[in-house]
Each structure stands twice: as structure tokens, then as C-alpha cells.
Records
---
Amino acid sequence: MRKLVHDSEEGRSPKAQRQAICAAGVCIAVFSSFAPLLGGCGEARNASPPQQAAASARQQEVKAHRNPCADRKEGPSAPRSSYDTPISRFIFRGEKAPGGLTDADILRAAKNRSWGGIGIADLIGRIERAQPAEQRALTLALAVADSALAVRDYYESGKSLPQHAIYTLAELTYHEDAEVRRGAAGILGQTRLEMAVPAIVERLSDADPAVRRRAVISLSDLAGSGIDTAFAALADARKNEDPAVRREVALWLRIRNNPAAVPALIEMLEDGDANVRRLAVEGLGFIRDRSALDPLIRHLDDPDGMVRSGAQFNLAQTPYRGPKVRAALIRLLDNPDAEERCEALIDVWAYHDRETLAAVTRMQHDGNARVRACASKILEDFRTPHEPLTPLGDLREIHRGDLLLRTCSGRGSDGK
């Protein structure tokens, strides 16, 4: 059969070759379908009625077999792919723009195309050289491509978007299509320009939640570029009505690790959304500002367990440990949850003084067996107050892995 296909390709036009290959495929399918019937034709005469019915059905199936080339249309009458329209060739191949361009045409062409293999840098270069009408159309396509990361790489290479494209992107943040607004806000966040801040701030109240979240990310990117107005706008967004926006704000304030974010993060500790409070606690732990001690101590009683645990962890690791923090950690030894009492024992142990020694000794009489075992193990390894301390971070890592997991993990049989 391979020889049949090879012979059919010699000396023929491409169209004739394709037809010959399709015909060979049909021959294979028909031969494979009839082979069982031909090989057992002598037995088919004596077959039972169900077997004869199955053979008849198989024959009907073979007759109904369609030529895979039957639906192929060639020549000028074939419908054109959406990838091969004048507008698509203008956007993706750099051909001359057709007349009467509309946003709807650009959106249709840009959304129907996979942008994985398209060079964004090449598209930006064409934006720089384009006429005003073509420039807007190409910038719109750039926004639809959601090309913020590619634009960031473009800027990191030492290049930048032309000024008229910045104005067009600011205009597109008000476009009726949410995908365009999101893409335009994302690109503006990579421009490193203070003039982009007002347009992005407007998207914080956008009707589409994805646009609002992208606006927060863009403000964070601009803040990371040293634009103070962007950082101030990001901090102000902590009061946004959308909890998802507030979570994004807390996340990016945490990532930026800027001491100027401490007041905003402290305020976000009072947010009604537990996820916002968790991220705010983490952010304060990264920054380690003295002014965060009292708010963290208050949130040792937070209704959310992860907020309580984060506040405790940050207090245990703060470089400003003193009597106030020690007293707060000792108070956690009275927590009704046995696991949290074990956690508190580990943190109290790091102080190595008489007051913490007395507190740990008291826990040997705890109602939970695991807590008593944890306290006993700590007392065995307790050091004198004058001996240099192991760094607290090492203590938490070593003894949480060795002591806590072996003797204090899980709840006691009494459930306390």
C-alpha cells in the first residue's frame, strides 16, 4: 500500500496527489472492513441469524463510509479562515490596513487568534511607525493580547512605548469591553510612568472583578518602580468595597516590604474578611516594625485561627522581644486548644528566663498528655538565662520538627 501511495504521487499536481492519498486511505478502510467477511464467507452461509444480522450491519457501515476528501473545498469558492482576512493580515503580518476599521473588527480578529507565536516587540515597533488611525487599531490589538508581561520585557530591554500609545491605552481603560480594559490597565502598569496612575486608579471601581484585580497589580508594579503616587493609591485601595481587591492590596503591600505600608497593614488587621487579616499579619511579619507589636498582640485573640497563629509567630520572631511580648506569649499557655498551647510553649521557651521557666513548669500539670510531654521535653533541654541563645528562627525550625511533631502534634484523648 505504501508503494501504491508513492506511485500515485509521481508526476501529479499537488491537488491530484492529495486526492490519490485520500483514495488510498479509503481502500485501506474498505479492505480492513471486508477482510473478516471475505475470510469467513463459507461460514457466513451457516451462521446463526444474529451473526448474519451483525454481518449485514457491518456491510451497511462500510457502504456508508465517507471519503475524507469529500468535504474538502478548494479554489476561490472555499470559505476563508478568520486568520486570513484583510484585518488579520494587517494586525499579524503588517500589511496595509483595510478601509473602515472599527473596534469590533479589530476585537474579532484579535480574539480569534492565538498570540503565543506573535512577536509583541514587533507589534510595538509597528505602533511607533503607524499612522494615527492604524496606531489606535494596533494598540487595541495589543491590549486584547493581554501582553503586560511582554511589555515588561520590552521595557527591561531598554525600550519603551511611544507617548501616543500611552494616551491611547489610558483611553482604552474606559472601553466597553472588559477584556480591553483589563489588558490596557495591565500594560500601563509596566510603563513606569506616573501619568498612568490616574487611569489605573479609576479601574479599582470597575464593574468587572478581573479588571479591578488587574488594577491593583498594575499599581503595585508602578509602586515597585519607585512611583510614590502609585504606592499611595495602592494603600488607599485598602478601603475598597470589594474584598477581593482588599486581599490583592494586602498581598502586594506584603510583597513590596515597604515600611511605609505599616499603617495601612495595621488598619487592615481590622478588616471583616479573614483572608485580608491573614495577609496583613504576614505583611507585618515581613516588615517587622515596632509599631506593629500592640496590634499583633491584640490579634492573638482573633476569631480566625490562622490570624492568631500568624500573629503569634510574628511576635515570637520579632527583634523587639521584651516583657510585653513575653507576657502575651505566656498568656497563650491558657489557650483552650491543646495544639496552640504546644505552639505557645515553643515560643515561650526561647526566652530562657525565670518567668518562662515557671510558666513551662506549670504546664507539666496540664490536662492534655501531649502538652505535658512537650513541657517535660522543654525542661530537659532548658538552658540557663546567661547562656547565649540559639537564634529564635533556628529554635522554631528545629524544635517544631523534632519536639512538637513527635510529642505535641495532634490533640489529646481528652480533646483539650
---
Amino acid sequence: MENGSRSSCSLIKQTMVVFPLNRRSGWRFKESQTVRVLCSISWIGHTIQKMLNAWIWNRWHLIGMTRTVLVAGASGYIGANLCRQLTEQGTSVIGWGRSAIDFIDPISTNTFSYKRGDVTEHTVLDKMAGSSPDAVVYCVSLDQAESEREIEKALEVNVTALWKLVDLLSRTDHPVRFIYLSTMHVYGQLKGNISETRRPQPQNRYGLTHLMAEEVLKHYGRRSKLDPLIIRLSNSYGPPVGESPSCWSLVLNDLCKQAIEFGEIHLLSDGTPQRDFIYIDDAVMAISKLLKFSGHRESEIFNIGGGRTYSILELALEVSRINRDRIGREVPVILKDGSVLTTADKSIRQEMDFTYDITAAIESGITPQINFEEGINRLFDYLGESLQ
């Protein structure tokens, strides 16, 4: 049943008989009980199709059949970590990225292949779709700063490339699970409990273009065998796979790197901005589990995060404390105005403005495993080894 429930229902309604109800009301459509029943059948059929697609995917996993997952953005921070985890699980992975990679050796070449290409080139998209993947994980996006600078480029990379790829995949004759890495920025202002039912109101181009891409996926999910899942990711942190210079601009990674390299932490603000964080291994674990997810769901969207909110100042002081416990040396935190704080000031508390609600993910068997302190210690271990 390739047409989505909404389009099918519209078609049914177009066949309704038109007749006058009375002289005053004139000609009007009267939706009969039969039409309502047919619309319900259409919706049920569409839902069953999506559940069947998910079931087929999960059966392949249980009986050990080889599946092929295409990872777009495999040379990036999340994409590279995901490729490593999937290949360690025995999944056949085709990675696509713009840059040369330096993590091919640690990954089994029997199950991993890497191809270079830019998703803004149609020939590259043709090759991606032509590889007939069973699933796609789409990790391609400009970062927030780039998205804000150039409207045309933001649309080309963040929206149009995905749209063209999805359109090509929608023409295949087999189900394709498509996982899209969106962002919590689609929600806009973060106040109160942020669940998947919150109406998106993006306040920047980065969030807006991701919301546009989400709508493209939903559109094709209703009208083809494409089985979309959307991950609205909070802020990830943790070591990269291979060289990934861009990951050191991430807030927590930057704080830890400053503590190791300079023996002090400089904040670019007063420390009051608030964030939710998830360790990189937990983020890619969530993607891996959603590739195999076959349970019932009310929505295609999952919030993926740590489920706890921190202020940047609280983060910096925690990083300072953990570093002090490791090496016995105090790491001062210096605010934008020059004020200096130490771990003795850890009693400073700020009321949290929001909670990133990950209940839907937890109920689907996706729970973060790496707590904050363990994640920071792992990052410090990596930095200690890489800087030797």
C-alpha cells in the first residue's frame, strides 16, 4: 500500500456523492459512515505497513542475515563513531563522507567500505541510492555557525541534499529505514518539559532547516516504503574516532581540553546558559538500537539526550573537580568578566529552566549508560594519551 493514509483518505473523499441537503443549505458534501470507515481502513493499512517494515528489519537482525547500512557523513564525529560500533556488531556498513578518513585500520574491512563524495552532487546521491541499502543513517549538516552565515548553503546541505536522496530511495521496491539526525534546536526556546509533543518553534536557521528536513521525511514516510525515524539529539561529548578537529568545538570537549592543555578553563559567557549532554557512545548506541527497533510508536520522533540539565558554569566546575581528583591540582574557572572560580565555589546553584524529556526513548529500551563523571574521565583518558 504505497500511498500514505492521508492521500488515500483524500482520494476516498473525492468519490463522495454530492447532493442537496435542503434548499437553504444548498449543495454540500455529506461524509457518510461508509467514507469514515474507509478512511479508518486506509489509516490502519498504512500503520500496518510501517510495522511490517520494522518487523522485517528486526527479523533480519535476529536470524543473523547480513544487513547493509549506509552512513552519510561517516567522516564526521558522530558518523565515524557510529561506523565503528555498527561494524563491531557485524553490520555491513557503507560510509560516505567528504574527507579522507584515518580510522579504517581499527575497523574490520570485511564489513566496512568507505567512499568519498559530496551530498550536494547529484551523481553522489545516485550512487548512494544505487547501493540499495537496507537502512540509511543521515548525519550530514552544516554546524550552527555555518548555517547562520549562508542561507543558500544551509538549504543546499541541510535540506535539499536529503530531499533528493529520500526521493531516490522512495522509488525502491523494498523497505528502507531512514534515521535522520536532527537537533533539539527545532524546539526553539527551551523552557519547561521538552518532549516530542512540544510544538517546534525554531529560533535560528540551524533549527529551521532541520525542521524542514524532518517534514520532508514525514512526507515520504506517508507515501512510500520509506520508514523514517527522527532523532532530535541534544549535545554530545566524548572522544572522536581518528582525527576529528571539529569535535573540540563542542562545549564539554573544549572544557576538558582547556583543563589538560592550559591548566585553567575560560568561559565565553557568565556560565548561565544551560544544556543537556549525552556521551558519544550512548548517542550512537541509540542510533544502533533504533535501526533494529520494531515496537509500536505514536511518532517518528525520539528525543535522545542525557535527561539532565546543567549550566555551563556547573559543567566547568565539575570538570575542574574531576581533573583535581585525577591529578591533585586545582583548575580555576575564569568567567568572561575575568572572575575566577574554583571547586570551592561548587555550591553555586542555578535553577534549571528546562528538562529534555527522553521518556519515549527509555520506554523503547534506549537508556544512557555512561554517567557524567565516567564520560568526563574517559575523555580525560583520551586526551592524556593523545597529547603524550
---
Amino acid sequence: MGEDFWDYFSALAPSVGVGLLFWLAIRAIFRADRKERAAEAEVREDHPDQNDAGHS
């Protein structure tokens, strides 16, 4: 019984680890995007007189 557990664990651990790393990377990307959008909105709010010629 105990040997079966370690067989299953050794088969599933790499997939679970890769899934966890993928989730952490995606979470970091979304958090960075959210912070960047908030910072850009704050700058636009502070300087409404400047035109938006650099962005499409």
C-alpha cells in the first residue's frame, strides 16, 4: 500500500510542480499588469492636459 502511494506521487509530482510554476508566473504577470494600469491611470489623472500622441 505504501509503495503504491510513492509510485503515484512520483508520477504526479512533476506535473503538479509545473502547474504550480505556471500559475505563479501567470499570477505575477496579471498583478504587474494591474499595477501598471493603475499607475498609468494615476499619471493620466494628474496630467490631463498632455496629449496621447505616443499611444495608439
